[in-house]
Amino acid sequence: MGKHFSNAGESREDEGRHVSVPSGSEPDDARVDAPVAGMGDGGAGEKPPANWFLPNPTGGSDEPRGRGHGRHPHGHHRRRVVAIVACVIVALVVALGASLALTARTAKADAEQAVAALEQARDAVSNGDSSALKEAASTASDSAQGVQSALSGPQWTIASLVPSYGQDVTTARSLAGVLVDLSDNVLSPLASNAESTDLKALVSDGSVNVDGVKALVGVLDQAAPALQRSAQTVDGFPQAHVSQLASAIDKAKDKIDTANSVVSRLSDLAPYLPTMLGDGGQTKTYLLVAQNNSEIRATGGFPGSMGIITVTDGQISVGDFTTIVGQRGKEFQLTEDEAVTFGAAMGVSPGNLNSTPNFERAGDLLAQAYEAYVGTHVDGTIAVDPVFLQSLLKLTGGVTASDGTVVDGSNAAEELLSKVYWRYGNDNASEDAFFAEVAGAAFKQVMGNLGKAGASNLAEVIDSSASERRLQVWMADSDQEKAIEKAGLAGEVSGDTSNPVLGVYFNDDTWAKMDWYLSTKTEVGQATTNSDGTVSYQVTTTVGNTITEDEAKSAPAYISGGNPAKADVSTMIINCFLIAPAGGNITDVTLNGATSGDAIMLYGHAGVRQSLSLDAQQSATLKYTVTVPKEATGDLTVDQTPLGNVSLQQ
Q1: Cα atoms in the Cβ-side hemisphere of radius 13 Å centred on 305
Q2: Pairing of strands 585-591, 619-628
Q3: Residue pLDDT, tens place only, 491-502
Q4: What is the pLDDT of residues 452-482, one digit of tens each?
Q5: How far apart are CA 257 and CA 467, in angstroms?
Q6: Assuming Cys at both sites, which of 84, 338, 447, 604 could form a disulfide with 334, CB separation 3.0 to 4.6 Å?
Q7: Other beta carbons within 10 Å of 210
Q8: Burial of 533 (0-12, 13-18, 19+ CB in 10 A)
Q9: How far apart are the C-alpha atoms of 627 and 537, rounded to whole Å?
Q10: What is the pLDDT of residue 370?
């Protein structure tokens, strides 16, 4: 066909194509529309473009146009496809949700079973039940693997991409990994060496199974890193959005952090235990010191009774208890700070050698004194008080003295620190004999029946007693002493600047056994950050004498004391030592509102010494400011001399 143009409303026909061209415009091939099959003159055999249902990519009308002026809308085709796609998406979401719900229920059930198995394992260790431990370990392993498997599917990977709540999914999957790690590297090795957790197998008839201890060392070597990893992972979890997960994480943190703390400290000491127990036919000798809190000393109490323990290949023997506190003629080397703070008499009288709160020094000095006066060299010093003994007797059963007195887990402290003095009055020989008899019998009772106690129960007693300074150990071997310190048994003055510790210590100067009536309370106020980055605390220490006038008047002189500085028979004289945290100081000290206290330095720590004279039912209040270095990250805590009457200490 030819071409035909007109000036107004021109049109052009060319080989079956019809184009309308607006007046004054050039023809535009981009606006040419191909007819759809079955419509117009395009021919029945032609197929529509594959993307016919999509919007026009050129930005023109979405509606296909046929020949001439007619328009044929096909939006319903596009809507149909969109609806189909939407249905597919909805179906996928429903399927994904159903899959998540199903696996979530599975994971929850397995997680609950794993946690229950962990609790059962703890109880099995406590009860020394090796069969129950193995069963619990197997269940925990299967359940932990089940949780991890349930949460490892692709649907959970998709769910982890959801804003906010996706982080909870990631946390839950990590928590599942922690369960598997604990099961594989803590419980399973423990179950494989279950006998090493059974005190009946480890301790019997006064003997320790050294081979069993070695097996326990191997378990700890594997368990310690796993617990440390788990603690770091759980402590690093972000705050969960789902309350159930947040609660589970909090519980996991508490349990894992506690276990990690105990195992990490024990794992440092464990490798030395075989040697300390005389492995390989060696004989180790230790000085056991019974501290008497009724005549207070900074480390605990008057070291009036001492005995020797020997260990060969785990076989323990306990010698007779004796005393050296009345001995004189030897002088023991003090540091300059010790002599200034506690007086030169500390280095002369064996009964004053533990006037220092640092048992790393006191244990060494007591060992020197015992060797000097008795002639026996010792490999270490172990100091205990009647409160610790009472805790042990509660686990093993009590003893009966030759005078018929029953000393057990309910009354040991009161019998040994108070009643004995009222019963025997000023008969020192009878009192000393009673102490020696009970100390020896109680130790044999403990060693012979320790297998009856659960491992976790014993561990709890040791841990709490060490933290309260009721059990303190010094070793002559420097490497062993470092391990003892890491285990929390050394009774040292803390040098940790990150975790500041205020020391509040006491030495009796009544020359008597009146400190059963001593009361103490130390309260730490809110932290205040100073301009230089240091932090200050307002602290109040209240010290009281709870004896009544009538009790004081009727008390034997052995209780009331003979210091001529006493105002009357009820007066209690106490020297108080406030030791600042490492890198810190103590300022603004007042006693009952008046400025008081003498500045001291002890082992590099600033401090204050204050003498107190308290009549019956009288108390004194010390207020002071403790400032810790800017390096400190933890809150201020208090380390203090343990009292015998625990109800009077806060």
Answers
A1: 25
A2: antiparallel
A3: 999 999 999 999
A4: 787 778 888 999 999 999 999 999 999 999 9
A5: 17
A6: 338
A7: 20
A8: exposed
A9: 6
A10: 97
| 461: number of Cβ within 10 Å | 19
- What single letter denotes the amino acid at residue 310? T
Query: Which long-range contacts does 328-332 make (Cβ < 8 Å, 24+ apart)?
Result: 330/369, 330/372, 330/373, 332/365, 332/368, 332/369, 332/372
**Residue 46 has what pLDDT?**
44
Three-state secondary-structure class, residue 343: coil
Residue 411 CB contacts under 8 Å (≥ 6 apart), including other chains: 390
> Which of these ranges, 126-140, 368-382, 486-500, has the smallest mean pLDDT?
126-140
In angstroms, the first-to-last Cα distance of the chain is 113
Place of tokens 């473009």: 49
Write the burial class of residue 365 (CB in 10 Å: 0-12 exposed, 13-18 middle, 19+ buried): buried
- Looking at per-residue pLDDT, the higher value among 177 and 248 belongs to 177
Question: Band of the pLDDT at 76, cuts 50, 70, 90?
Answer: low
Long-range CB contacts (within 8 A, 24+) of 459-465: 459/262, 461/388, 461/391, 461/392, 461/395, 463/262, 463/488, 464/391, 465/384, 465/387, 465/388, 465/391
Task: Give the 3-state secondary structure of residue 581.
Answer: coil
- Parallel, antiparallel or unpaired: strands 535-545 and 619-628: antiparallel
* Token representation of residue 154: 């692709």
Question: What's the pTM?
Answer: 0.81
Dihedral (CA of 65, 70, 75, 77) sign = negative
User: The tokens 């686990």 sit on which residue?
Assistant: 395
- What CA–CA distance (Å, rounded) separates 328 from 348? 7
* Residue 5, pLDDT above cutoff 60: no
Mean pLDDT of the chain: 85
Q: Are the C-beta atoms of 232 and 174 separated by less than 8 Å?
A: no
Cα 465 from Cα 454, distance rounded (Å): 17
- The pLDDT of residue 449 is above 90: no
